[in-house]
Structures are given as C-alpha cells and as structure tokens.
Amino acid sequence: MKIYNKYILCCIGSLSFIMSSFANVTIPSFFSDHMVLQQQDNVKIWGWSNPHEPITVTTSWSNDTITTKGTNYAKWEAVLKTPKAGGPYTITIKGYNEIKLNNVLIGEVWVCSGQSNMEWTASAGIDDAETAIAAANFPNIRLFTVSKHSSETPQDNLDGQWQTCSPETMQYFSAVAYFFGKKLYQELDIPIGLINSSWGGSYAETWMPESVFKTNDELKKASEKINPVEWAPYEPGRIYNAMIHPLTKLNISGVIWYQGENNTANSKFYHLIFSELIKSWRQAFNKEMPFYFAQIAPFSYHEFAGVEVRDAQRRTLELPNTAMVVTSDIGDLKDIHPRNKKDVGLRFAQLALKKHYYTIETVVESPLYASAEVKNNKLLVTFNHADGLYATSKTSQFEVAGADEVFHSAKFKIKGNQIEVFSKQVKEPMYVRYAWGNTIEANIFNKVGLPMSSFTTQLIK
C-alpha cells in the first residue's frame, strides 16, 4: 500500500511538473493590476498561450464565465462586457496557469500622444509645480506611460506599467495629460485611465502606419522633406509600430494630441500629414473616436513655418469629431516648451466635457475663421465660436491682399461675431490673414477668454 501511495504521489508530482511546463498563458503589459477598462463596452482582452489551450476568464462584476482557447498561432482573445464606471474589481484568467488582475477600475480611457510638449512632466518644470505635485492624490486616476521603443514592424506588446495617481507618480507623467484627466475626474466623478504614448522631437510621420505612405504619393513626397534628428526616429511608422499599434485593440474614449513643432521642417505638407494620421488611427482602432489636438504655440521658427503648421492644424478641423486647443496666449516666445501645461490640459478637458460627454454648455473653442465676403472694398470676416469678441489692443494683426497676393496691413472693426477688415492700399481685397507670423500672439478673444486662431485664406503653396 505504501508503495502504491508513493506511486500515486509520484504521478501527481510528474503531472504537476508537466502542467507547470505548459503554464504559458500571458497577457500584454497594459492588462495588469491598477488598470482602467472602458465602461459599458465590449472590451477585448487577449494574450498568448499554447495552441488549443483551454482558457477561462471571470470577473468580480459578473457571474459569467468566458471560455476560449489558444489558436494554432498560440494566441487567444476574449470579450468582456463591462458595467458602468466603478470598482475596484478583479479579473481572473485561467489556462494551465492562472493570472489574477487586482484593483481594476471601470471608467473612461484616453490615449495622450505627441512629442515633447505632451511628454513634458511636472518634474521637468511646469508653472507652480510644487503645488501641483503635492495635490496629485487621486487613487481613481490611473496612469500608464509607454516606454520609448521603435520597430520596423508592427508589435503586439509594449513596455509600461499602470500606476495609481499620487504625488510620487504624477510628477513623472505627462503634465498636460494629468491636468486633462484630473478635470475629467472632478467633473464626471468616475475613474479615468490615461495612456501617455509620446516622444519628444518626433515627426508625425513616425506616428503613422508605414503602409499609408505606400499608397499615397503626396504623403511619401512629404516624408522625404524631413531629415534625421538626434532625439527620435524619423522613418515613417517606426514609433507607431512599437508605441501605438499594440494599443489599437484596446477600447478607448478618444485621443488628445500635442505635436507639430518638428513638422515645421515640412510645414506646407502638414495638413495632409496630420489629416492622414487621424484617419489612419481611426482605422486602426476601428472607431471614429474624438481626436482633440493642441495648436503649437508661437516660437521663432524659420520663415513662416510655425504659423503654417498652426494653419494646417486649423484646417484639419474639417475632419469630423475633431477640435483644437489654441495656445497662442499661453506660450513662451523664448522656450519651445511653455511651462503652462495646466491651461492646455484644462482646455483639452473642456473640449471633451462639452463635445464628448455633453456635461457643459459654455463656449469651449477659440474663435475660428468661417468665411469672408467683399462689401464696399472691405472684407467682412465671419467667425465660429465668436460670441463676445474683443481686442486686447488696438494693434491690428490683420492683413489683406488683392489678386496679386501681396499683403498689406489692414484696419479692423469688430461687429458681433464678424470683423470688418480694410486697407487703403487694397482697393479690391480677395485674401485676408490674421496673426500671420511665427511669433505673433493673438490679441482678439471671445467672451470666455479664448484666443482667436491665426489663419489665412490664401492657398499655401
């Protein structure tokens, strides 16, 4: 009998060893303790396993058991139906091994991306940094920073870790994203998940799928105008492959974006580049998600490159479900990295609260050029979001031109949400532009104190 029992124990031990050797159910890094999943959605969760390995997924918010198995490519996927915002919850994934995810929240998830002004942290230096850091104790705001990587091919995973928002974690996270998320949390009173995937000194082309360039000759031509830079990859698709593609099966609310400074190198193409970036991301995420972006601030770029990028960003608003934060009043002409990140984040949040969550009714967008018509040798220019227009100085930042496209300084008169613009030097005006210079800071605002965007009606060639 003792020999028989030893035989059984030996078999059990061998079986345990065999089973442990198959214990290879794994998941991407963004499925972890402290994560946030999108509320009231059919959320995908996925990973890797042995082929045909039986897998079950259970959650503490539901009695349902989701069953699936590994494919012949050693991958698996399941869909979880998430409830209204809340938590914390647990998720248990069982194959030959078991993974348990703790302190999971259900709420709103946003991707925050771009170059250095999005990447910029409180520890790098922002206005009133010490106070902001000390107050950053929000357990229901979760932060995930994607580590910098590049790749020649699309990847399925990336490096990063979900963290609870605290003074210790906030100070090394995107400041713009933090202030955006903090305002959403305070207004919505639900968990907020922020995924910061940004890289200072990067071109927009590197944030787009390389395949887009193969089917668009103009886009390919634009990408050939950029040069290698010291701090980031410059080849199309390299950052996208490693830092965005792995996220594209996630369920998210939307994107906030702050980039463009580097693309002053090919500013005349930026409207095309940026429009195609937004389209390609929406296709990759399979969602017409909100895409809100910050207009770059005035700075001493070469020729008219800075204002050309700003105007390209303004014209990208023709795409549906987009909106723009104008920053010409909160920049720093001596520093390409303005330290006022709080107002940028708050302006992003106001856009989301009105246009995506419908919780506020106030004006949240800057005055934007809408149309112009000739009346008695003058141009009557109409603006959107222009209630209560006022000028902070008598200095005119308007210029007009005739058929020769030679611009002359013009006088202006505010008439409601319209502005009359005229110049004695231009008898038959055809074109108008405003704040057309790299370093010109807006001096016209709407009733909520948001600055008018620079613009030109002339075709940029």
From TrEMBL:
It comes from the Bacteria. It holds the Pfam family SASA. InterPro entries: SASA, SGNH_hydro_sf, SIAE. Residues 108-350 form the Sialate O-acetylesterase domain. Residues 1-23 form the signal peptide. Keywords: Hydrolase, Signal. This is Sialate O-acetylesterase.
